[in-house]
Design goal:
The protein has about 325 residues and is of the alpha+beta class. The protein folds into 2 domains: about 15-60, no CATH class; about 70-315, no CATH class. Helix content is about 20%, strand content about 30%. Strands 1, 3, 4, 7, 8, 10, 13 and 16 form an 8-stranded mixed β-sheet that branches. Strands 6-5-9-11-12 form a 5-stranded mixed β-sheet.
Length: about 325
C-alpha cells in the first residue's frame, strides 16, 4: 500500500471548504450558531455566491477573530517531557522542534498511545462521534504506511474518556525517525454512528501490534480496511466531514520547523495560520493532576483549541519463540 493511496486527499477539512459548500454542510447538520457566524463573516464580501465562487474565497482568507476552533486549518506541535511519579507542579510545554532528540531510540521499539482528544468545538451541536484515523511510517520508507482507527464520543468543551489508549505497539524506529499522520472525521450520519461501534471492539480496541509486522500478512490488509472505512464515511454523505488533519515527522536532526523524537508526550493543536494570531507555547502549561492544558497567567483557563495528545514510550521487543527455547535448554 503506498502512502498516498489512502490519504483521502480529495476530501478537504472543514476549514478548506468554499463558503457556499460550508454553509450547506452547516445547514444540513443544524449548526445555527456557526451559520450565523459564517453569514457575519461574509457580510461585506459580497453575496455568498460571489464570495464563494466568482472570487474563489476560502474561509481562512476572510476569518475574523471569533472563528470557531474547527475552522482553522493549521496545527502546531508541542512537547511535554516524561514526568516523575507524583508530580503536582505545572509543567512547561515547548515546541516539538526545540527539544533534544533521543538518538538511543534508533532501532528501538516504541509504543504510541492516544493520551487525550480534546474538543473545544466541533461542527454541529453537543455530542460528537469522532473517527480518529492514524497512520505511522518509517521516515526513510515513506511509500509504506500502517493505519489504525478508533471512534470516540465527545462533547463540546470536553475530552474523550481516554488515558493512554493504544494505537501502535512495538513500532521499530528507523535511523531517521518515524512519521505520524492523523485525521479526525466528525460523523453526523446516524447509521454510520452505529457502525462505528465496531471500531470499539475486538482487535480495534488494542491498537496495532507491529512487532514482527514484516512477517505478519494480516497487517497490511488490516490497514487497508481502516483506510477504506474512513474513505467510505467521507463519501457517503456530506454530513460526515474531516475536521482535523496533520502530518508530523519525528526525527533526529535539528533543522527549523521539524519535530524531534524523544520519549514523552506530543500535542497537535488546531490553530489559525496567521502572524496576527501566532501561537505561543510559553503562554500555556500542563497541570498533571488535572491532565489539562491551562493558561500560565491564571492557571485555570483551559485552552480554547481542539487538540490531540500522543504518548511515546520505549518497549522491549518480545523474545522470539526459537530464542526462548534455546535459552531454556541451556544447562
Amino acid at each position: 500500500m503506498t502512502l498516498n493511496e489512502y490519504t483521502d486527499a480529495n476530501d478537504p477539512v472543514m476549514g478548506d471548504l468554499p463558503a457556499d459548500e460550508l454553509l450547506a454542510v452547516l445547514e444540513e447538520i443544524g449548526d445555527h450558531e456557526a451559520i450565523a457566524w459564517l453569514r457575519k463573516e461574509l457580510d461585506g464580501q459580497g453575496s455568498l455566491a460571489i464570495a464563494a465562487t466568482d472570487f474563489g474565497f476560502q474561509l481562512p482568507q476572510i476569518l475574523g477573530g471569533d472563528a470557531p476552533p474547527w475552522q482553522y486549518t493549521a496545527h502546531v506541535f508541542g512537547y511535554i517531557p516524561r514526568l516523575s511519579a507524583g508530580t503536582t507542579q505545572s509543567v512547561a510545554i515547548v515546541d516539538a522542534s526545540n527539544i533534544v532528540a533521543d538518538r538511543s531510540l534508533v532501532g528501538a521499539h516504541v509504543h504510541i498511545t492516544l493520551q487525550q482528544l480534546r474538543v473545544a468545538k466541533y461542527p454541529g451541536n453537543g455530542r460528537h462521534q469522532i473517527l480518529l484515523d492514524c497512520g505511522v511510517f518509517d521516515q526513510r520508507l515513506k511509500e509504506r504506511e500502517l493505519r489504525f482507527s478508533r471512534s470516540y464520543n465527545v462533547l463540546d468543551g470536553q475530552s474523550a474518556g481516554v488515558a493512554g489508549d493504544p494505537l501502535f505497539s512495538g513500532l521499530k524506529v528507523g535511523d531517521i525517525g518515524i512519521g505520524l499522520r492523523c485525521q479526525t472525521v466528525n460523523v453526523k450520519n446516524e447509521l454510520d454512528e452505529e457502525f462505528l461501534q465496531v471500531l470499539n471492539s475486538g482487535t480495534f480496541r488494542h491498537g496495532l501490534k507491529l512487532v514482527g509486522a514484516a512477517i505478519n500478512p494480516a497487517i497490511i490488509p488490516f490497514t487497508e480496511i481502516v483506510a477504506a472505512t474512513t474513505g467510505a464515511f467521507l463519501k457517503r454523505t456530506r454530513r460526515n466531514r474531516k475536521v482535523q488533519e496533520f502530518r508530523m515527522g519525528l526525527d533526529f536532526e535539528t533543522p527549523p520547523f521539524g519535530a524531534r523524537l524523544a520519549l514523552g508526550s506530543y500535542l497537535a493543536v488546531q490553530v489559525p495560520q496567521s502572524v496576527e494570531q501566532a501561537f505561543d507555547w510559553s503562554a500555556w502549561v500542563y497541570l498533571p493532576e488535572q491532565a489539562a492544558i491551562v493558561s500560565k497567567a491564571d492557571g485555570k483557563t483551559l485552552i480554547n483549541h481542539n487538540y490531540l495528545a500522543f504518548g511515546v514510550q520505549r518497549v522491549e521487543p518480545p523474545v522470539s519463540r526459537k530464542k526462548a527455547t534455546v535459552a531454556h535448554e541451556r544447562p
